[in-house]
Design goal:
- Chain A: Pfam families: TusA.
- Chain A: It comes from Haloarcula mannanilytica.
- Chain A: This is UPF0033 domain-containing protein.
- The structure holds 2 protein chains of 2 kinds.
- By secondary structure, chain A is of the alpha+beta class.
- Chain A has one domain: 2-Layer Sandwich (Translation Initiation Factor IF3), CATH 3.30.110.40.
- In chain A, 25% of the residues lie in helices and 38% in strands.
- Chain A has 2 helices and 4 strands.
- In chain A, β1, α1 and β2 form a beta-alpha-beta unit.
- The mean pLDDT of chain A is 91.
- Chain B is α/β, with parallel strands linked by helices.
- Chain B has a domain of 108 residues: 3-Layer(aba) Sandwich (Hypothetical Protein Ychn, Chain: A).
- Chain B is elongated, with a radius of gyration of 23 Å.
- In chain B, 29% of the residues are buried.
- The mean pLDDT of chain B is 91.
- The chains are: A alpha+beta, B alpha/beta.
């Protein structure tokens, strides 16, 4: 996993902390639909499954690229950061 | 043999190349299609079809869920909020069958599961239905069982497809890449 948070300019942030499968992927898809090509969405999730799920989802779509997945700690809870770029309309 | 005439090998290679490009063009722009037949209407069995359907829609797939028999209750706007789960016949639940069989056993098990659903941040059935419909999933109510259970079609969520039967389900399944019976 990459650890540098500052390289990508994040256009929008989606907070799905507390939500579990399938909502992180579903809400990410809905948020990506509102991105312009070249923009990056940052998804914040606490669902540990979102690491595999969002990577798998992104790999099947030609319209998005998963740029980074990192983790942070918030009050003892792990927050997973997924940065997804829209590359195609 | 003239020099510009194709040898049998060259003809065959050309034919293979043509067929390969034809196969590649087939369905190149077609989304993956999935058809789920949902037959169960207990709280636990309502989840898998809806989770798979809404996730598949997030993949851009073309998804149809055909609801028949007890699964009609998933589409029933009122009953979908009151789906029950039973401990009887379900050894995975932390409750002896004999207790689950007592009056109120299903209510207790359902209360327990709803509490876990809420604590885990798991979406409610209603939330999943709204999400699936919003993402273009075709949720269908089987006409025959709708009549069998004496449901008016207006008891279902807005956006549910009604007036469809087994032939419609089979038509979707014939064209689908993935078919599941839940």
């Amino acid at each position: 996993m990459a650890t540098n948070n500052d390289e990508l300019a994040v256009a929008k942030t989606l907070d799905v902390t507390g939500a579990s499968c399938p909502m992180p992927v579903v809400k990410t898809k809905q948020a990506v639909d509102d991105l312009a090509v070249g923009e990056v969405l940052e998804v914040l999730a606490t669902d540990a499954g979102s690491v595999s799920d969002i990577a798998g989802w992104a790999s099947t779509l030609d319209s998005v690229v998963l740029r980074e997945q990192t983790e942070s700690e918030d009050d003892g809870t792990t927050v997973y950061h997924h940065r997804i770029e829209r590359v195609d309309a | 043999m003239s020099s510009d005439a194709a040898t049998p090998e060259q003809s065959l290679e050309q034919r293979v190349a043509d067929l390969e490009s034809e196969v590649a063009a087939l369905g190149a722009d077609e989304p993956t299609r999935m058809t789920i037949i949902a037959t169960k209407g207990s709280l636990d069995m309502a989840y898998p079809p809806l989770i798979l359907a809404s996730t598949a829609a997030a993949f851009g797939w073309d998804v149809t869920v055909f609801h028949t028999f007890w699964a009609l209750d998933i589409l029933h706007e009122k009953r979908s909020r009151e789906l029950q789960v039973s401990a009887v016949g379900n050894p995975s639940l932390p409750m002896p069958n004999i207790l689950g069989a007592l009056p109120g056993g299903d209510s207790l098990t359902t209360w327990y599961m709803n509490r876990e659903i809420d604590a885990n941040g798991t979406p409610t059935i209603e939330e999943l239905i709204d999400t699936a419909l919003d993402m273009g999933v075709d949720l269908q109510a089987c006409e025959m069982t709708t009549e069998l259970f004496d449901y008016d079609t207006d008891v279902f969520y807005d956006g549910v497809t009604t007036g469809v039967g087994a032939a419609t389900a089979l038509e979707h399944m014939a064209d689908a890449d993935i078919q599941l019976l839940v």
